[in-house]
Amino acid sequence: MLILRCPYCGVSGEETEFHAGGEAHLKRFGPGSSDAEFEAYLFQRENPKGVHFERWRHVNGCGKWFHAARCTATLEVFGTYPAQSTEPPADLRKAISAKRPGWKWREFS
Amino acid sequence: MSDPATPLNGAHYAGYVTIAEAAPRGMITLRGDLGDKGFAKVVKAVTGLALPGQREFAAKGDFAVAWMSPDELLVLCTYDRANAVVADLTAQLGDLHSLAVNVSDARALIEITGDDAREVLAKLAPVDLSPGAFGPGQIRRSRLAQVPAAFWMTDTGFQLVCFRSVADYVFEALSTVAQPGSRVGALV
Ligand SMILES: [Zn+2]
Q1: A13: which chain B residues are within 8 Å (Cβ-Cβ)?
Q2: Burial environment of residue A89 by CB neighbours within 10 A (0 to 12, 13 to 18, 19 or more)
Q3: For residues B73 and B66, is the Cβ–Cβ distance under 8 A?
Q4: Interchain contact A57–B (C-beta under 8 A)
Q5: At residue B38, does pLDDT exceed 80?
Q6: Nearest to B81 by CA among B21, B28, B40
Q7: Where do the domains of chain A lie, and which CATH numbers do they carry?
Q8: Which residue, A4, A5, A17, A12, is CA-closest to A75?
Q9: At what angle are helices B37-47 and B82-93 packed, to 10 degrees?
Q10: Which 3 state secondary structure label does DSSP give B120?
Q11: Is the pLDDT of residue B188 over 90?
Q12: Could you tell me the pLDDT band of residue B1, with boundaries at 50, 70 and 90?
């Protein structure tokens, strides 16, 4: 069971109050992109054991989308941050490094 | 004006707490930038209430205002005046990016009253309802069994609002967990 804190309404709620929305920080490739880029955008996903970044929605609550960083092995939630972020905030990355030294996820570390 | 047909037809259940449909109430969804001073000014002018802070619920006279999200309020007023209040809000908000809609008939309002109201609600919602964690002046949007709902405290218990389409489900779920003999007594 995950306990997530919604960055918009400040509620710390358990998982069933939220809905998972897949991998975070995907870059969309549409018309005009190469087949390889489009395929990667559509199908290629991280599947880490450890640090992972996801999109979540406070569906039974304020209704807002946000980002969450968590560990897939221990279900520890490192932090959440607004949807209007193109990358994990620096302070959150630092906090994760303190707990999981040397972590790497896509281009972030 | 014809009498409003409420979702639960005034349903009432007496268990170890009482579950009852509330009298018809005006309910308005008001969306806009809560950080905008002009927006707060209009809310104050129309309802007499200051903009509530995050997850706050404030009531005064016929009006109540609840914080639903950073860009949404729930405004409560008398049922008969809801359309007039919407018109007033819309006129005063003018060009400000905003939206006011009368949702009185799209919602159900249910009252949970009695000493164990906290416990009955806690059986269905994944929320810490101990007095230290939740009290008067707050609103909580959450899940009630399988559907979304929002609730706040009154002098005698809780008022809960849910979508009209799931009013029966919510009433039955609350009645079921309020059955005599099912008191847990762990929440004080
Ligand atoms: Zn939220």
Answers
A1: 126-127, 142
A2: middle
A3: yes
A4: no
A5: yes
A6: B28
A7: 3-99 (3.30.2270.10)
A8: A4
A9: 150
A10: helix
A11: no
A12: low
Q: Which of A8, A10, A17 sits opposite B142 (nearest CB)?
A: A17
Amino acid occupying residue B130: S
B123-132 pLDDT, tens digit each: 999 999 999 9
List the structure tokens of B65. Answer: 């205002």
The size of chain B, in residues, is: 188
Structure tokens at B53: 């802070």
Q: Kindly list the structural domains of chain B, giving each domain's residue range(s) and its CATH number in brackets, ordered by start.
A: 12-23+106-177 (3.30.1360.120), 25-105 (3.30.70.1520)
Å between A52 CA and nearest CA of chain B: 25
Contacts of B55 in chain A (CB under 8 A): 9-11
Compute the C-alpha angle B161/B187/B114, nearest 5°. 50
| pTM more than 0.80 | yes
